[in-house]
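Quarterly update, task 2.4: zinc ion-bound model.
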Amino acid sequence: MTDADPHARQPLFAGPVDLHLHSNRSDGTEDPADVVARARQEGLGTIALTDHDTTAGWAEAAAAATARGLTFIPGMELSARDGWRSVHVLAYLFDPADVDLLAETVRIRDDRIGRAERIVRSIGRDYPLRWAHVLAETEGDATVGRPHIADALVAQGIVRDRGEAFDGILHPRQGYYEAHYAPDPITAIELVVGAGGVPVIAHPAGRERMSDATLRRLIDAGLGGLEIDHRENTAEGRAWLHRIADAHDLIVTGSSDYHGAGKPNVPGENTTEPAMLQRIIDRASGSAPIYPAAR
Ligand code: AMP
Ligand code: FE
Ligand code: FE
Ligand code: ZN
């Protein structure tokens, strides 16, 4: 399709587009409505809320987005694991009531609780940290993760910030780390596709970069796209990802991975081309974008 195509549609959503933000329904530090407000402040026109393993923030974020003139793309970052490597699968516009995907997210979230308790018990043998301290940092039934343990370590004055916690006590080499249940990435992709969603691998070329062979297997399983413009992807990694995206005609996204005060990432620091978001919308069948009332 060229620019001169008379059938070319104007997208219903406005840019700039940021497809990866977290609220306190997982490990972000702000309510979904405040994430939307911050996105608006940074000049974004369309955002996806992609909390880890939950859709609990969708309703609040959608209402706030509509009220502020932003388009809302329902999303999630599904935890998966390939051996020792954690793989994050962004999922867009899937059916939140799909029983198989729903059951898997419940299983992951439940297992995350026991896992976090065991990590805290282990840390508690060496530092004054208790489970109650972690609960105090966790919003309602938010997806619990190491970031909440990090916040408890900060609150107890044991470390300065999340970054110091992850570089030290929470790092696997310190011996307190334990993995939580997560499906393998192929299963994760099949679940998202089965729920009518579009799977995109988050930050695929960060520290835990997967192999070429693994990525090819994910493409065969129905992978829709790659998050290439993300601060954790290395320069060489991005070049590698662009070659693969071109060869397999994959969707390419760019996003901030905003976590409120939990990370330095700022909404809009990376954005997604409108044409790429349109491809996600056209490919999805599980749910629809929520557009603001006509302006
Ligand atoms: P978990 O899934 O419980 O193992 O925790 C992983 C989460 O911790 C990821 O979703 C990241 O958002 C967050 N995280 C990882 N490294 C850091 C860091 N250095 N600073 C802040 N958050 C981090
Ligand atoms: Fe996170
Ligand atoms: Fe991630
Ligand atoms: Zn994320």
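Highlight for this quarter: DSSP finds ten helices and seven strands in the chain.
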